[in-house]
Amino acid sequence: MVEVYEFWAVIVSLIVVKLCHWIYQWKNPKGNGKLPPGSMGYPIIGETFEFMKLHDAIQLPTFVKEKLLRLLIYSLVSFLLS
What is the phi/psi pair of residue 24, to 5°? Predict the structure, then answer.
């Protein structure tokens, strides 16, 4: 019986170590400064919670406004510098 608990303890420990390693790699990407602008967001979920916040039906959500503004500025600068 003790062997079964030891087995599960090893399995859980390996999962925790792998999860910590995955989180570390996510927080410290190897991009050499070539990542696109924007936040990293949470893995899998991304910015879904911010996108799904309640807003007026007539207006764009704040999330969309911020993304559009950043995209427009980035596109304008790229267009002017090319």
Answer: -60, -45
Exposure of 23 by Cβ count < 10 A (0-12 exposed, 13-18 middle, 19+ buried)?
exposed
CB 50, CB 63: distance < 8 Å:
yes
Residue spans of the domains in the chain: they are 2-81
- Number of Cβ atoms within 10 Å of the Cβ of 58: 5
Is pTM beyond 0.70? Reply is: no
pLDDT in tens, 18-34: 998 988 888 777 766 66
How far is Cα 73 from Cα 5, in angstroms, rounded to an integer?
57
Pinpoint the alpha helices (H) of the chain. 2-27, 48-51, 62-81
- Give the CA angle between residues 31, 28, 78 to the nearest 5°: 35
| Tokens, residue 50 | 């911010």
